[in-house]
Amino acid sequence: MKIATYNVNGVNGRLPVLLRWLNQTTPDVVCLQELKAPQEKFPEQAIADAGYQAIWHGQKSWNGVAILTRNLQIKEIGRALPGDPEDMHSRYIEAVVNGIHIGCLYLPNGNPAPGPKFDYKLQWFERLKSHAASLLAAGTPVVLTGDYNVMPTELDVYKPERWLDDALFRPETRAAFKDLVDQGWTDAIRKLYPSQKIYTFWDYFRDAYGRDAGLRIDHFLLSPQLDGRLLAAGVDRNVRGWEKTSDHAPVWIELAD
């Protein structure tokens, strides 16, 4: 079973890129972030024509998350992260696919930091940790994946000294991610590639992709029930080099049945 995550950075504007990638790689499950489309503008028919059914939680102009499946039934569980009924951001959607709970998330950026946006990021992280703990306690197989907007270690960022005051790399953010993982989750990429430089995002400016000046901010966290089923993981880095593409590349894992 191949599961992928992709911050598409505008599902309609990048639709040709998304469809091309789906056609080439045919993952079984795809988690998308940053749809930047209201609920009624999601390209459901084009996705269906590509062989995928979808659930999605859209939002006008920004945010938005979706889960796509190919030849697998999908049962939606929820489309908001518990803990703050006043939070209207479309940043989380959860479903059961093939016996696996899949949470697709788009964690807040948090810049500028310090400030209200950074406070919101940390509050969202606390809600995520609480929900993640409840998922672990249930004892079912879980994948929590998406754009976490966190570089967990210096290995995950090009020239880390330049990012010390950024919300994605501040000590509070990295500590929150570590607390989450320490609940009992497996960082899939780091399990298979513990010391390798791997990036999932390259800025559009200053030829970041060409210079490989990247960040690893898109992550797969696996519950203990899935740790032993992890067969492979990787980044489709070449997609970042396509015309009119997202600033993120798709990330994927393969799980044994």
UniProtKB/TrEMBL annotation:
<dbReference type="GO" id="GO:0046872">
    <property type="term" value="F:metal ion binding"/>
</dbReference>
<dbReference type="InterPro" id="IPR037493">
    <property type="entry name" value="ExoIII-like"/>
</dbReference>
<keyword id="KW-0460">Magnesium</keyword>
<feature type="binding site">
    <location>
        <position position="248"/>
    </location>
    <ligand>
        <name>Mg(2+)</name>
    </ligand>
</feature>
<feature type="active site" description="Proton donor/acceptor">
    <location>
        <position position="147"/>
    </location>
</feature>
<dbReference type="InterPro" id="IPR004808">
    <property type="entry name" value="AP_endonuc_1"/>
</dbReference>
<dbReference type="GO" id="GO:0004519">
    <property type="term" value="F:endonuclease activity"/>
</dbReference>
<protein>
    <submittedName>
        <fullName>Exodeoxyribonuclease III</fullName>
    </submittedName>
</protein>
<feature type="binding site">
    <location>
        <position position="247"/>
    </location>
    <ligand>
        <name>Mg(2+)</name>
    </ligand>
</feature>
<feature type="binding site">
    <location>
        <position position="147"/>
    </location>
    <ligand>
        <name>Mg(2+)</name>
    </ligand>
</feature>
<feature type="binding site">
    <location>
        <position position="34"/>
    </location>
    <ligand>
        <name>Mg(2+)</name>
    </ligand>
</feature>
<feature type="domain" description="Endonuclease/exonuclease/phosphatase">
    <location>
        <begin position="4"/>
        <end position="248"/>
    </location>
</feature>
<feature type="site" description="Important for catalytic activity">
    <location>
        <position position="218"/>
    </location>
</feature>
<dbReference type="InterPro" id="IPR036691">
    <property type="entry name" value="Endo/exonu/phosph_ase_sf"/>
</dbReference>
<dbReference type="InterPro" id="IPR005135">
    <property type="entry name" value="Endo/exonuclease/phosphatase"/>
</dbReference>
<keyword id="KW-0479">Metal-binding</keyword>
<feature type="active site">
    <location>
        <position position="106"/>
    </location>
</feature>
<feature type="binding site">
    <location>
        <position position="7"/>
    </location>
    <ligand>
        <name>Mg(2+)</name>
    </ligand>
</feature>
<keyword id="KW-0378">Hydrolase</keyword>
<feature type="binding site">
    <location>
        <position position="149"/>
    </location>
    <ligand>
        <name>Mg(2+)</name>
    </ligand>
</feature>
<dbReference type="GO" id="GO:0006281">
    <property type="term" value="P:DNA repair"/>
</dbReference>
<feature type="site" description="Interaction with DNA substrate">
    <location>
        <position position="248"/>
    </location>
</feature>
<comment type="similarity">
    <text>Belongs to the DNA repair enzymes AP/ExoA family.</text>
</comment>
<dbReference type="GO" id="GO:0008311">
    <property type="term" value="F:double-stranded DNA 3'-5' DNA exonuclease activity"/>
</dbReference>
<dbReference type="GO" id="GO:0003677">
    <property type="term" value="F:DNA binding"/>
</dbReference>
<feature type="site" description="Transition state stabilizer">
    <location>
        <position position="149"/>
    </location>
</feature>
<dbReference type="Pfam" id="PF03372">
    <property type="entry name" value="Exo_endo_phos"/>
</dbReference>
<feature type="active site" description="Proton acceptor">
    <location>
        <position position="248"/>
    </location>
</feature>
<dbReference type="InterPro" id="IPR020847">
    <property type="entry name" value="AP_endonuclease_F1_BS"/>
</dbReference>
<keyword id="KW-0464">Manganese</keyword>
